Inverse folding.
């Protein structure tokens, strides 16, 4: 019979965050991509993930593909459910960051209050990445044919057409993905990550 | 102006899971601790996390402390909310595993259907860890004074007293934490992790 008292749990984790950072060689944090549909969020997040992985960072993309089918499969597309979707993304991103990972999130996240909640959840390591090629470029790209449908009235409340997009007021980084190639954008973002998430840096 | 078409996102991640495993030196997965209150779930998960971290594994504990205040702060303690709490834990654990982490979850999770959902979400790397010192040991420990309150009728539907605990039918590992010390239990679990999550292993 083991000592009854020794199975009382300690308060909090026995491995602290700075220990995790020292081991992985970088701080954890959140690169929160925001912008209109077609602005390049998923493209850049996935390309940056690959680049950072090759550079030796621990990183992971959270996007609609891996959240809508699992954690957020109970949510629809009502305004309330969209808000709850982004709230959960923010909380999960913060959890990932607290393991020492650099998590890259790719969601339109059109409302300032939602993004501010995500920033509050993640704390210091939160970086708002605003992709801003302008509506005309996004609509010309229209990779999923959504703008066409929205203009035809087939999709109600489509961000940028019939629903608002609230531009970030103080994003940590802005990329005009109408003027900058994917390769150049990845280089820019990679330099930003290397600087902001270095272990020596005090964010 | 960048090529309009190059910002169409690729299908899926550009870094696949085996690449992540090779880099970290181990597979990702879920060690799902289940058992009565006082059975040692948090104690062992936190102690194992520390040991695995020192051994070079990428690992993280998900427990009530880091989920109830964030992601699951909208949930109460009704049967529906408890179910939803465990569903989200299972989905988040699966997400963590898909980054290559070994996630250790510490929740009573008394219902088989809930644990089976978590297993389904995580797939191959799911390991059910049943801590079974028996009710009498848990009640004698009573680290939070909850059994006393439950016996006094101050807590309704308390698992093991006035609500059921459905024992795992085929757990991957069982530890009698009434007979085995914390140190011995950690050694046992560490050996299990090293064997199951080795890169060479085909789970």
């Amino acid at each position: 019979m083991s000592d009854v008292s020794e199975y009382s749990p300690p308060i909090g984790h026995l491995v602290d965050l700075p220990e995790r950072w020292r081991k992985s060689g970088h701080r954890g944090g959140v690169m929160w991509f925001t912008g209109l549909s077609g602005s390049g969020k998923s493209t850049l997040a996935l390309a940056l993930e690959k680049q950072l992985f090759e550079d030796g960072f621990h990183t992971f993309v959270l996007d609609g593909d891996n959240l809508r089918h699992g954690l957020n499969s109970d949510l629809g597309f009502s305004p309330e459910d969209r808000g709850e979707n982004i709230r959960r993304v923010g909380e999960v991103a913060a959890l990932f960051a607290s393991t020492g990972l650099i998590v890259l999130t790719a969601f339109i996240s059109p409302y300032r209050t939602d993004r501010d909640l995500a920033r509050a959840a993640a704390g210091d390591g939160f970086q708002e990445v605003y992709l801003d090629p302008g509506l005309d470029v996004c609509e010309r790209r229209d990779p999923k044919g959504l703008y066409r449908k929205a203009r035809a009235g087939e999709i109600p409340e489509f961000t940028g057409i019939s629903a608002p997009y609230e531009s970030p007021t103080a994003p940590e980084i802005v990329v005009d993905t109408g003027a900058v190639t994917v390769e150049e954008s990845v280089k820019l973002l990679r330099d930003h990550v290397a600087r902001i998430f270095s272990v020596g840096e005090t964010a």
In short: Residues 29-197 of chain B form a domain with the Rossmann fold fold (CATH 3.40.50.300). The longest strand of chain B covers residues 29-34.
